[in-house]
Amino acid sequence: MRPLLPSDPARVGRHRLLGRLGAGGMGVVYLGRTDQGALAAVKVVRAAYADDPGFRARFAREVRAAGRVRSPWVVPLLGAGTRESTPWLATAYVPGPSVAEAVEECGPLPLRSARVLGARLAEALRDVHAAGLVHRDVKPANVLLALDGPRLIDFGIAREQAGTALTATGTVVGSPGFLSPEQARGTGAGVGPPSDVFSLGCLLAFAVSGHRPFGDGSPAAVLVRTAYEEPELDGVPGDMAALVRSCLAKEPGDRPTAAELRAALGGAPPAEDWLPGPVVRLIARRSAAALALPAVPPTTLDGRGAAATRAAGAAGAGPAAREAAGAPTEPAIAPPRPGLPRRRLLLGAAGVLAAGGGAGAWWAWGRGRKPAAAVRKTLVLALHADLSGPGKALGTAQERGVRIALEEFNSRAEHGLRLDLLVRDDRGDPRRAQEVAEELSADGKVLAVLGPSDEDCAAAVVDRYQKALLSMVSVSLGRLPAKGLHTQRVFVATRPVDDALGGPLAVHLAHTVDSRHTVFLADAELGATSWTVCSRTADALGASTRSERWTVEEDTDARGFAALAGRVVDSGADAVVFVGGARRTAELARALPAAGFEGARLGTHHAVTSSFLGLAGRDAEGWVFATPFLNPLAEESTGAFATAYRRRFEGADPPWYAAEAYDAALFLARAVTELGAIGYERGGLVRQLRETRYEGITKALYFDPDTAAYNLEALYLFAVEGGGFVYRGRAADGAR
């Protein structure tokens, strides 16, 4: 949960807001508390919807329909404000994780747990369908886990969103990977109860195997596979696989009903032990964290901004600060719900958060016996890089940047942590990288990995790290090599992929060169990346510039580059872009002046090396390169880092990627400190990294769910002047 923002309301309906639980396309979900102490999840609709009279009418109808659902496995609707200036609705608060979070943090569910999950969700869908509703967005993120069973959420909101958008043929609404074929085709008709059964089949396959039955990748690709291809059910046990496959029939009429699915799954074991131990402990930690939330003082003077600011400040501050703000220093705890065993209340039951004396005593002990500042918890991070092979310089730069970052982190005591660094060298060999990954995965002390520094090594180990739920935070990887690297949730790329380099190249061509005719040369030796960068640059320039795109074959020699340069001159181009490595770029650099070309010459970071300068000689002058790294000696924000680097490493200037590695390490450290509220576990860190924002010295690091990437703007330009690379600054500045 995150603090309230200054723009957030302090109260919605009868709920005093305590913090943000999440946000989506339709609105923001808050944790709220009534004056009687009951907790609720309060969803507030965004203004874009609130101002639409048609939406308001549909929203009111859906809220009324949702109120008709009676099911122990559906989170109940507690209240709504359909006529208020900002519409909202409140449901019971469930402190447990979603199925998506549980699988991510604790691994796939055992078959026994998955059968209970399926049986009770089938009951939930049976009750939803009986009320005349279709959920339309049954997915792991919309199912919360509690000790007495799962809870289906968001059926009212998801139904309204789908019902609104699906009135237009060809529009697809929902979550690719868990949509039915009829939803994936966007036909606008035929989406009924069988669609929910199909989605439940996808959810069960994911819960028991950890993989989506129609794979990962772009939403369009997943939708096509859903509509026309058979599911991949590897990892789903035989008897469950047969049942799941029946749910995933392409034709709605061939699927079982929710009631039939419930009967096929059989009886459920006792509620109190249906989940595995790691998930139970996760529920316990979240329940305890929610119990520790303080009450929020009433607001009578200021508007929305000031009220929310005080509430957020009181919720996030220590006891002394909360007392000064007028907030009670002990939490308000809801009374126990009759009929639930006392020990289960301690761990968190669905719908109501309650506790006996044990939980309250634990919370008070934790606050009253805060460890002394000298007692710090030690955690271990690992660096996995090429430190002695062909990429030694790059790996060493990253190791040094990480060491400076952790030394700085450990010099501060306020976070109560110490981060030790375990360094492993894969020598740039994918087989050796796999050995390193096995070692680090098996070492329970290692919380996360920085690296690898080589693309092929990263591709070789990402599945192993994913299985171990071990975050791999990369600094320099930009190519999209083997299938699965950028689709695994443990992989955190803190720099843009190479495909994004077309942006700064286009900015320079349009705003500095003012090119009217550009020839793009894609180097086959670099692979698909080269062609993609050339194509995206040309597309960004649009019709204002004439573009020609040629491929430079791998066997092109010096004579071939000379002929190529002649073709460029004959074309009348005033600019040339070559996306290739240092040696091949140097070949072209020498050939262009000899052919009489005097226009602009652009390349990418693949050639920003001393070898390019040496091979091209004076013909390197004037070349401009797009890079994903900055010059730490030329930015004000990196000045202190450059000074620290020189002091630490005998006067040496920080090389490329050292400052970026420093930022990646502190971004990881920030996520680790934010993880403290729920416990330092690998799976929790995987999720926390997607919720952490770090303002670094090179860039801001945060996950953007719209692009599924951590940063797309950290791109820069260098030019060769006086025999060396001169930093031109951030590429975005060239458009101003």
Automatic annotation (TrEMBL):
Residue ranges annotated as compositionally biased, kind Low complexity, are: 312-332
Species name for this entry? Streptomyces sanyensis
Parts forming coiled coils: none
Which keywords annotate this record? Answer: ATP-binding, Kinase, Nucleotide-binding, Signal, Transferase
Which InterPro entries does the protein's record reference?
A: Kinase-like_dom_sf (IPR011009), Leu-bd (IPR028081), Peripla_BP_I (IPR028082), Prot_kinase_dom (IPR000719), Protein_kinase_ATP_BS (IPR017441), Ser/Thr_kinase_AS (IPR008271)
**One protein family per Pfam:** Peripla_BP_6
Instruction: Name the segments for region: Disordered.
Output: 312-338
Q: Please tell me where ATP binds in this chain.
A: K43
Q: Which residue numbers delimit the Protein kinase domain?
A: 15-275
Q: Which family does it belong to?
A: Belongs to the leucine-binding protein family.
What is the protein's name according to its record? Answer: Protein kinase domain-containing protein
- UniProt keyword Signal, yes or no: yes
Q: Which PANTHER family match?
A: MITOGEN-ACTIVATED PROTEIN KINASE KINASE KINASE 20-RELATED (PTHR43289), SERINE_THREONINE-PROTEIN KINASE YBDM-RELATED (PTHR43289:SF34)
